[in-house]
Amino acid sequence: MGKYHHGDVRNVLLQKAETILTEEGPTGLSLRRLARMTGVSEAAPYRHFDGKDGILAAVAIAAFERFAEQLESVAANVAHHEERIMKLGAAYVGFAVENPQHFRLIFGRERPPLDQYPELRDAADNAFDVLQRAVTSVDRKAEMTLTEAATAYNRALAAWSRAHGIAMLVIDGMIVPPADQELGDFVLGLLAEDLTAPSDL
Amino acid sequence: MGKYHHGDVRNVLLQKAETILTEEGPTGLSLRRLARMTGVSEAAPYRHFDGKDGILAAVAIAAFERFAEQLESVAANVAHHEERIMKLGAAYVGFAVENPQHFRLIFGRERPPLDQYPELRDAADNAFDVLQRAVTSVDRKAEMTLTEAATAYNRALAAWSRAHGIAMLVIDGMIVPPADQELGDFVLGLLAEDLTAPSDL
DNA sequence: TTTCTTATGTTAACTAAGTTAACATTAATG
DNA sequence: CATTAATGTTAACTTAGTTAACATAAGAAA
Protein backbone atom coordinates (compact mmCIF):
# COMPACT_ATOMS: atom_id res chain seq x y z
CA MET A 1 0.00 0.00 0.00
CA GLY A 2 1.12 3.45 -0.81
CA LYS A 3 0.99 5.13 2.58
CA TYR A 4 4.38 3.87 3.67
CA HIS A 5 7.38 6.02 2.89
CA HIS A 6 6.76 9.70 2.66
CA GLY A 7 9.58 10.48 0.35
CA ASP A 8 11.28 13.17 2.37
CA VAL A 9 10.43 12.60 5.98
CA ARG A 10 13.68 13.99 7.31
CA ASN A 11 13.17 17.40 5.81
CA VAL A 12 9.53 17.55 6.74
CA LEU A 13 10.45 16.69 10.34
CA LEU A 14 13.09 19.40 10.41
CA GLN A 15 10.67 21.89 8.99
CA LYS A 16 7.98 21.11 11.55
CA ALA A 17 10.58 21.07 14.30
CA GLU A 18 11.47 24.63 13.33
CA THR A 19 7.84 25.61 13.59
CA ILE A 20 7.31 24.02 16.98
CA LEU A 21 10.55 25.44 18.31
CA THR A 22 9.64 28.93 17.19
CA GLU A 23 6.33 28.68 19.00
CA GLU A 24 7.23 26.80 22.13
CA GLY A 25 10.95 26.55 22.53
CA PRO A 26 13.22 23.56 22.96
CA THR A 27 11.37 22.12 25.93
CA GLY A 28 8.02 22.27 24.20
CA LEU A 29 9.36 20.37 21.24
CA SER A 30 8.26 16.80 21.77
CA LEU A 31 9.35 14.11 19.36
CA ARG A 32 6.06 12.32 19.69
CA ARG A 33 4.07 15.42 18.89
CA LEU A 34 6.42 16.19 16.06
CA ALA A 35 5.86 12.73 14.65
CA ARG A 36 2.10 13.01 15.00
CA MET A 37 2.08 16.41 13.33
CA THR A 38 4.13 15.05 10.48
CA GLY A 39 1.72 12.17 10.09
CA VAL A 40 4.32 9.56 10.73
CA SER A 41 4.83 6.95 13.42
CA GLU A 42 6.18 8.03 16.77
CA ALA A 43 9.39 6.12 16.32
CA ALA A 44 10.12 7.32 12.80
CA PRO A 45 12.15 10.40 13.82
CA TYR A 46 14.71 8.09 15.37
CA ARG A 47 15.53 6.77 11.92
CA HIS A 48 16.58 10.22 10.82
CA PHE A 49 17.95 11.83 13.94
CA ASP A 50 19.95 10.82 16.92
CA GLY A 51 17.01 11.31 19.29
CA LYS A 52 15.84 14.64 20.55
CA ASP A 53 19.31 16.09 20.86
CA GLY A 54 19.94 15.14 17.27
CA ILE A 55 17.02 17.19 16.06
CA LEU A 56 17.88 20.10 18.31
CA ALA A 57 21.44 19.98 17.02
CA ALA A 58 20.25 20.11 13.44
CA VAL A 59 18.02 23.08 14.17
CA ALA A 60 20.76 24.79 16.15
CA ILE A 61 23.22 24.41 13.30
CA ALA A 62 20.84 26.11 10.93
CA ALA A 63 20.23 28.84 13.49
CA PHE A 64 23.94 29.47 13.98
CA GLU A 65 24.36 29.76 10.24
CA ARG A 66 21.61 32.31 9.87
CA PHE A 67 22.95 34.20 12.86
CA ALA A 68 26.47 34.32 11.44
CA GLU A 69 25.18 35.40 8.03
CA GLN A 70 23.26 38.31 9.47
CA LEU A 71 26.19 39.50 11.56
CA GLU A 72 28.53 39.10 8.63
CA SER A 73 26.35 41.12 6.32
CA VAL A 74 26.29 43.99 8.80
CA ALA A 75 30.00 43.84 9.43
CA ALA A 76 30.79 43.81 5.76
CA ASN A 77 28.89 47.02 5.17
CA VAL A 78 30.34 49.25 7.84
CA ALA A 79 33.92 50.34 7.33
CA HIS A 80 34.41 52.49 10.40
CA HIS A 81 35.62 50.43 13.30
CA GLU A 82 33.70 51.83 16.25
CA GLU A 83 30.57 52.20 14.19
CA ARG A 84 30.89 48.62 13.09
CA ILE A 85 31.05 47.39 16.67
CA MET A 86 27.91 49.30 17.54
CA LYS A 87 25.96 48.19 14.49
CA LEU A 88 27.05 44.64 15.10
CA GLY A 89 25.74 44.80 18.62
CA ALA A 90 22.43 46.09 17.37
CA ALA A 91 22.26 43.29 14.81
CA TYR A 92 23.10 40.79 17.53
CA VAL A 93 20.23 41.97 19.67
CA GLY A 94 18.01 42.22 16.61
CA PHE A 95 18.49 38.55 15.84
CA ALA A 96 17.74 37.61 19.43
CA VAL A 97 14.54 39.63 19.49
CA GLU A 98 13.33 38.32 16.17
CA ASN A 99 14.28 34.73 16.91
CA PRO A 100 14.20 34.43 20.69
CA GLN A 101 13.77 30.68 20.75
CA HIS A 102 16.57 30.08 18.32
CA PHE A 103 18.75 32.47 20.23
CA ARG A 104 18.04 30.65 23.45
CA LEU A 105 18.62 27.33 21.75
CA ILE A 106 22.07 28.22 20.51
CA PHE A 107 23.22 29.88 23.72
CA GLY A 108 21.27 28.15 26.47
CA ARG A 109 21.79 24.89 28.24
CA GLU A 110 19.18 23.11 26.14
CA ARG A 111 21.69 23.19 23.35
CA PRO A 112 23.07 19.70 22.76
CA PRO A 113 26.69 19.39 23.92
CA LEU A 114 29.11 20.76 21.34
CA ASP A 115 31.50 17.89 21.74
CA GLN A 116 28.85 15.40 20.69
CA TYR A 117 27.95 17.19 17.49
CA PRO A 118 31.04 18.29 15.56
CA GLU A 119 29.03 20.13 12.95
CA LEU A 120 27.34 22.06 15.71
CA ARG A 121 30.68 22.99 17.17
CA ASP A 122 31.85 24.16 13.74
CA ALA A 123 28.76 26.27 13.28
CA ALA A 124 29.27 27.84 16.70
CA ASP A 125 32.94 28.50 16.14
CA ASN A 126 32.22 30.07 12.83
CA ALA A 127 29.65 32.45 14.30
CA PHE A 128 32.09 33.58 16.98
CA ASP A 129 34.78 34.03 14.39
CA VAL A 130 32.59 36.38 12.44
CA LEU A 131 31.98 38.33 15.59
CA GLN A 132 35.59 38.49 16.59
CA ARG A 133 36.86 39.41 13.18
CA ALA A 134 34.38 42.22 12.93
CA VAL A 135 35.19 43.58 16.36
CA THR A 136 38.92 43.13 16.22
CA SER A 137 39.67 44.34 12.71
CA VAL A 138 41.52 41.12 12.29
CA ASP A 139 42.91 42.18 8.96
CA ARG A 140 45.77 43.71 10.87
CA LYS A 141 46.20 40.99 13.43
CA ALA A 142 49.63 40.10 12.11
CA GLU A 143 50.90 43.58 12.82
CA MET A 144 49.79 43.58 16.45
CA THR A 145 51.99 43.13 19.43
CA LEU A 146 50.84 40.66 22.04
CA THR A 147 49.60 43.44 24.26
CA GLU A 148 47.67 45.00 21.44
CA ALA A 149 46.12 41.68 20.56
CA ALA A 150 45.06 41.19 24.18
CA THR A 151 43.53 44.64 24.23
CA ALA A 152 41.68 43.97 21.04
CA TYR A 153 40.42 40.68 22.39
CA ASN A 154 39.16 42.39 25.50
CA ARG A 155 37.33 44.94 23.43
CA ALA A 156 35.70 42.12 21.55
CA LEU A 157 34.63 40.42 24.75
CA ALA A 158 33.29 43.65 26.18
CA ALA A 159 31.27 44.36 23.07
CA TRP A 160 29.99 40.84 22.93
CA SER A 161 28.97 40.78 26.59
CA ARG A 162 27.02 43.97 26.32
CA ALA A 163 25.08 42.89 23.30
CA HIS A 164 24.47 39.50 24.82
CA GLY A 165 23.25 40.97 28.08
CA ILE A 166 20.86 43.32 26.38
CA ALA A 167 19.60 40.50 24.19
CA MET A 168 19.01 38.21 27.13
CA LEU A 169 17.32 40.76 29.33
CA VAL A 170 15.09 41.92 26.51
CA ILE A 171 13.92 38.49 25.38
CA ASP A 172 13.38 37.45 28.97
CA GLY A 173 11.22 40.49 29.50
CA MET A 174 13.39 42.05 32.18
CA ILE A 175 14.07 45.09 30.04
CA VAL A 176 11.18 46.49 28.06
CA PRO A 177 12.44 48.59 25.16
CA PRO A 178 10.61 51.90 24.84
CA ALA A 179 7.75 51.71 22.39
CA ASP A 180 8.42 55.13 20.93
CA GLN A 181 11.86 54.24 19.67
CA GLU A 182 13.36 51.89 17.12
CA LEU A 183 14.81 48.87 18.87
CA GLY A 184 18.08 49.41 17.04
CA ASP A 185 18.40 52.97 18.28
CA PHE A 186 17.61 51.91 21.82
CA VAL A 187 20.32 49.28 21.69
CA LEU A 188 22.81 51.66 20.14
CA GLY A 189 22.13 54.04 23.00
CA LEU A 190 22.84 51.41 25.59
CA LEU A 191 25.97 50.23 23.85
CA ALA A 192 27.29 53.77 23.70
CA GLU A 193 26.99 54.43 27.43
CA ASP A 194 30.39 54.89 29.00
CA LEU A 195 30.20 53.90 32.64
CA THR A 196 33.68 55.15 33.37
CA ALA A 197 32.57 58.71 32.76
CA PRO A 198 31.28 60.66 35.77
CA SER A 199 27.53 60.63 35.96
CA ASP A 200 27.17 64.43 36.04
CA LEU A 201 23.93 63.97 37.90
CA MET B 1 2.91 3.36 63.52
CA GLY B 2 5.61 5.92 63.81
CA LYS B 3 6.96 6.15 60.29
CA TYR B 4 4.19 8.40 59.06
CA HIS B 5 4.67 12.13 59.35
CA HIS B 6 8.21 13.31 59.27
CA GLY B 7 7.68 16.34 61.37
CA ASP B 8 9.01 18.90 58.95
CA VAL B 9 8.67 17.50 55.47
CA ARG B 10 8.27 20.85 53.81
CA ASN B 11 11.60 22.15 54.96
CA VAL B 12 13.39 18.93 54.25
CA LEU B 13 11.96 18.95 50.74
CA LEU B 14 13.07 22.51 50.19
CA GLN B 15 16.52 21.71 51.47
CA LYS B 16 16.93 18.70 49.22
CA ALA B 17 15.49 20.65 46.32
CA GLU B 18 18.26 23.21 46.82
CA THR B 19 20.82 20.45 46.70
CA ILE B 20 19.46 18.86 43.56
CA LEU B 21 19.06 22.21 41.87
CA THR B 22 22.64 23.17 42.64
CA GLU B 23 23.89 19.96 41.10
CA GLU B 24 21.61 19.53 38.16
CA GLY B 25 19.60 22.61 37.52
CA PRO B 26 15.87 23.15 37.26
CA THR B 27 15.29 20.53 34.61
CA GLY B 28 17.12 17.85 36.55
CA LEU B 29 15.00 18.48 39.59
CA SER B 30 12.35 15.80 39.53
CA LEU B 31 9.61 15.75 42.13
CA ARG B 32 9.59 12.00 42.23
CA ARG B 33 13.29 11.77 42.81
CA LEU B 34 13.05 14.52 45.37
CA ALA B 35 10.38 12.57 47.20
CA ARG B 36 12.39 9.38 47.09
CA MET B 37 15.49 11.12 48.37
CA THR B 38 13.51 12.61 51.19
CA GLY B 39 12.15 9.20 52.07
CA VAL B 40 8.59 10.19 51.50
CA SER B 41 5.89 9.11 49.09
CA GLU B 42 5.95 10.43 45.55
CA ALA B 43 2.80 12.42 46.01
CA ALA B 44 3.75 14.00 49.30
CA PRO B 45 5.41 17.11 47.82
CA TYR B 46 2.07 18.10 46.37
CA ARG B 47 0.75 18.59 49.88
CA HIS B 48 3.36 21.25 50.52
CA PHE B 49 3.91 22.85 47.17
CA ASP B 50 1.89 23.80 44.18
CA GLY B 51 3.53 21.20 41.99
CA LYS B 52 6.94 21.56 40.45
CA ASP B 53 6.55 25.26 39.76
CA GLY B 54 5.66 25.78 43.39
CA ILE B 55 8.93 24.31 44.56
CA LEU B 56 10.91 26.16 41.94
CA ALA B 57 9.20 29.37 42.99
CA ALA B 58 10.13 28.81 46.62
CA VAL B 59 13.74 28.15 45.70
CA ALA B 60 13.80 31.12 43.36
CA ILE B 61 12.48 33.43 46.05
CA ALA B 62 15.27 32.41 48.38
CA ALA B 63 17.79 32.87 45.59
CA PHE B 64 16.53 36.34 44.77
CA GLU B 65 16.83 37.29 48.39
CA ARG B 66 20.41 36.13 48.69
CA PHE B 67 21.23 37.83 45.42
CA ALA B 68 19.76 41.11 46.56
CA GLU B 69 21.55 40.91 49.90
CA GLN B 70 24.91 40.42 48.28
CA LEU B 71 24.41 43.29 45.88
CA GLU B 72 23.13 45.50 48.65
CA SER B 73 26.12 44.81 50.87
CA VAL B 74 28.49 45.81 48.07
CA ALA B 75 26.54 48.91 47.20
CA ALA B 76 26.38 50.02 50.80
CA ASN B 77 30.14 49.91 51.14
CA VAL B 78 31.21 51.92 48.14
CA ALA B 79 30.50 55.62 48.26
CA HIS B 80 31.95 56.71 44.96
CA HIS B 81 29.34 56.47 42.24
CA GLU B 82 31.30 55.14 39.28
CA GLU B 83 33.26 52.79 41.48
CA ARG B 84 30.04 51.50 42.97
CA ILE B 85 28.66 50.65 39.55
CA MET B 86 31.77 48.71 38.71
CA LYS B 87 31.95 46.82 41.97
CA LEU B 88 28.28 46.06 41.71
CA GLY B 89 28.81 44.56 38.29
CA ALA B 90 31.60 42.41 39.62
CA ALA B 91 29.41 41.24 42.48
CA TYR B 92 26.62 40.49 40.02
CA VAL B 93 28.88 38.28 37.96
CA GLY B 94 30.36 36.79 41.12
CA PHE B 95 26.98 35.61 42.28
CA ALA B 96 26.27 34.09 38.89
CA VAL B 97 29.55 32.22 38.81
CA GLU B 98 29.21 30.91 42.34
CA ASN B 99 25.55 29.98 41.95
CA PRO B 100 25.08 29.34 38.26
CA GLN B 101 22.01 27.19 38.65
CA HIS B 102 20.30 29.66 40.92
CA PHE B 103 21.21 32.47 38.61
CA ARG B 104 19.74 30.60 35.68
CA LEU B 105 16.67 29.78 37.69
CA ILE B 106 15.89 33.36 38.58
CA PHE B 107 16.59 34.78 35.12
CA GLY B 108 15.84 31.97 32.73
CA ARG B 109 12.62 30.68 31.30
CA GLU B 110 12.43 27.81 33.78
CA ARG B 111 11.49 30.36 36.35
CA PRO B 112 7.80 30.02 37.20
CA PRO B 113 5.75 32.91 35.84
CA LEU B 114 5.97 35.96 38.08
CA ASP B 115 2.27 36.68 37.85
CA GLN B 116 1.43 33.32 39.34
CA TYR B 117 3.62 33.74 42.39
CA PRO B 118 3.25 37.19 43.94
CA GLU B 119 6.00 36.57 46.48
CA LEU B 120 8.31 35.67 43.65
CA ARG B 121 7.44 38.87 41.87
CA ASP B 122 8.13 40.84 45.04
CA ALA B 123 11.49 39.16 45.48
CA ALA B 124 12.39 39.94 41.89
CA ASP B 125 11.25 43.54 42.10
CA ASN B 126 13.21 44.03 45.25
CA ALA B 127 16.41 42.73 43.69
CA PHE B 128 16.04 45.08 40.77
CA ASP B 129 15.33 47.95 43.09
CA VAL B 130 18.57 47.34 44.89
CA LEU B 131 20.35 47.35 41.59
CA GLN B 132 18.71 50.49 40.35
CA ARG B 133 19.14 52.43 43.54
CA ALA B 134 22.80 51.59 43.62
CA VAL B 135 23.35 52.55 40.03
CA THR B 136 21.17 55.63 39.99
CA SER B 137 22.11 57.27 43.28
CA VAL B 138 18.43 57.40 43.93
CA ASP B 139 18.86 59.50 47.00
CA ARG B 140 18.72 62.49 44.73
CA LYS B 141 15.95 61.25 42.48
CA ALA B 142 13.60 63.95 43.64
CA GLU B 143 15.94 66.64 42.46
CA MET B 144 16.28 65.24 38.94
CA THR B 145 14.60 66.62 35.88
CA LEU B 146 12.83 64.16 33.66
CA THR B 147 15.71 64.13 31.21
CA GLU B 148 18.19 63.52 33.96
CA ALA B 149 16.12 60.67 35.30
CA ALA B 150 15.96 59.13 31.86
CA THR B 151 19.71 59.42 31.50
CA ALA B 152 20.23 57.84 34.88
CA TYR B 153 17.88 55.03 33.99
CA ASN B 154 19.77 54.38 30.81
CA ARG B 155 23.02 54.21 32.69
CA ALA B 156 21.49 51.65 35.00
CA LEU B 157 20.27 49.56 32.09
CA ALA B 158 23.64 49.74 30.41
CA ALA B 159 25.47 48.67 33.55
CA TRP B 160 23.01 45.91 34.18
CA SER B 161 23.17 44.57 30.63
CA ARG B 162 26.92 44.38 30.67
CA ALA B 163 27.12 42.52 33.92
CA HIS B 164 24.33 40.22 32.84
CA GLY B 165 25.97 39.47 29.54
CA ILE B 166 29.29 38.67 31.11
CA ALA B 167 27.57 36.51 33.71
CA MET B 168 25.65 34.56 31.10
CA LEU B 169 28.53 34.02 28.73
CA VAL B 170 30.81 32.94 31.54
CA ILE B 171 28.45 30.45 33.14
CA ASP B 172 27.53 29.07 29.74
CA GLY B 173 31.20 28.54 29.01
CA MET B 174 31.34 30.85 26.02
CA ILE B 175 33.82 33.13 27.74
CA VAL B 176 36.57 31.50 29.74
CA PRO B 177 38.01 33.93 32.28
CA PRO B 178 41.82 33.92 32.35
CA ALA B 179 43.19 31.62 35.02
CA ASP B 180 45.97 33.99 36.01
CA GLN B 181 43.62 36.74 37.12
CA GLU B 182 41.01 37.21 39.81
CA LEU B 183 37.55 36.87 38.32
CA GLY B 184 36.58 40.20 39.82
CA ASP B 185 39.45 42.02 38.15
CA PHE B 186 38.66 40.41 34.85
CA VAL B 187 35.07 41.56 35.09
CA LEU B 188 36.07 45.05 36.15
CA GLY B 189 38.30 45.22 33.12
CA LEU B 190 35.45 44.31 30.79
CA LEU B 191 33.05 46.70 32.44
CA ALA B 192 35.51 49.54 32.08
CA GLU B 193 35.96 49.16 28.34
CA ASP B 194 34.63 52.16 26.51
CA LEU B 195 33.61 51.11 23.03
CA THR B 196 32.97 54.64 21.90
CA ALA B 197 36.65 55.43 22.17
CA PRO B 198 38.75 54.88 19.05
CA SER B 199 40.53 51.57 19.15
CA ASP B 200 44.04 53.04 18.66
CA LEU B 201 45.07 49.75 17.11
C1' DT C 1 14.24 -11.29 -13.40
C1' DT C 2 15.25 -12.99 -8.86
C1' DT C 3 17.54 -12.40 -4.62
C1' DC C 4 19.92 -10.07 -1.02
C1' DT C 5 20.79 -5.99 1.51
C1' DT C 6 19.98 -1.60 3.24
C1' DA C 7 17.09 2.22 4.33
C1' DT C 8 13.06 3.46 6.22
C1' DG C 9 8.80 2.87 8.44
C1' DT C 10 5.60 0.50 11.94
C1' DT C 11 3.91 -1.45 16.35
C1' DA C 12 4.61 -2.45 21.00
C1' DA C 13 6.88 -2.07 25.04
C1' DC C 14 9.81 0.05 28.89
C1' DT C 15 11.14 3.76 31.81
C1' DA C 16 10.55 8.10 33.98
C1' DA C 17 8.11 12.10 35.09
C1' DG C 18 4.08 15.41 36.47
C1' DT C 19 -0.22 15.22 38.37
C1' DT C 20 -4.57 13.95 40.59
C1' DA C 21 -8.08 11.17 43.07
C1' DA C 22 -9.34 8.28 46.73
C1' DC C 23 -8.13 6.64 50.92
C1' DA C 24 -5.56 6.51 55.66
C1' DT C 25 -3.75 8.47 59.70
C1' DT C 26 -2.36 11.86 62.71
C1' DA C 27 -2.91 16.09 65.46
C1' DA C 28 -5.60 19.43 66.98
C1' DT C 29 -9.86 21.29 68.42
C1' DG C 30 -14.71 21.46 69.94
C1' DC D 1 -14.34 11.68 73.20
C1' DA D 2 -15.85 12.88 68.43
C1' DT D 3 -14.96 15.57 64.62
C1' DT D 4 -12.22 17.88 61.37
C1' DA D 5 -8.25 19.72 58.98
C1' DA D 6 -3.59 18.65 57.77
C1' DT D 7 -0.59 15.55 56.04
C1' DG D 8 0.79 11.00 54.09
C1' DT D 9 -0.03 7.00 51.21
C1' DT D 10 -1.27 4.11 47.18
C1' DA D 11 -2.79 3.71 42.68
C1' DA D 12 -3.82 5.41 38.50
C1' DC D 13 -3.66 8.52 34.24
C1' DT D 14 -1.11 11.12 30.83
C1' DT D 15 2.85 12.48 28.24
C1' DA D 16 7.42 11.88 26.87
C1' DG D 17 12.05 9.74 25.35
C1' DT D 18 13.81 5.64 23.78
C1' DT D 19 14.55 0.98 22.03
C1' DA D 20 13.60 -3.67 20.13
C1' DA D 21 11.41 -6.53 16.91
C1' DC D 22 9.23 -6.73 12.83
C1' DA D 23 7.66 -5.18 7.91
C1' DT D 24 8.21 -3.20 3.53
C1' DA D 25 10.21 -0.68 -0.05
C1' DA D 26 14.15 0.34 -3.28
C1' DG D 27 18.23 -0.66 -5.26
C1' DA D 28 22.36 -3.51 -6.12
C1' DA D 29 24.07 -8.01 -7.25
C1' DA D 30 23.46 -12.48 -9.07
From TrEMBL, chains A, B:
Family annotation (InterPro entries): Homeodomain-like_sf (IPR009057), HTH-type_TetR-like_transc_reg (IPR050109), HTH_TetR (IPR001647), MT1864/Rv1816-like_C (IPR025996), Tet_transcr_reg_TetR-rel_C_sf (IPR036271)
Q: Which residues form the HTH tetR-type domain?
A: 7-67
Region forming the signal peptide: none
**Keyword Metal-binding in annotation:** no
Keyword Chloroplast (UniProt): no
User: Which SUPFAM superfamilies is this protein grouped with?
Assistant: Homeodomain-like, Tetracyclin repressor-like, C-terminal domain
Q: Which Gene3D superfamilies match?
A: Tetracycline Repressor, domain 2
Q: Which domain of life is it from?
A: Bacteria
Per UniProt, the keywords (alphabetical) are:
DNA-binding, Transcription, Transcription regulation
The record ties this protein, via PROSITE patterns, to: HTH_TETR_2
Q: Which residues bind DNA?
A: 30-49
* Alphabetized PANTHER family for the sequence: HTH-TYPE TRANSCRIPTIONAL REGULATOR RUTR, TETR-FAMILY REGULATORY PROTEIN
What this protein is called in its record is: TetR/AcrR family transcriptional regulator
Q: Which organism is it from?
A: Thalassospira povalilytica
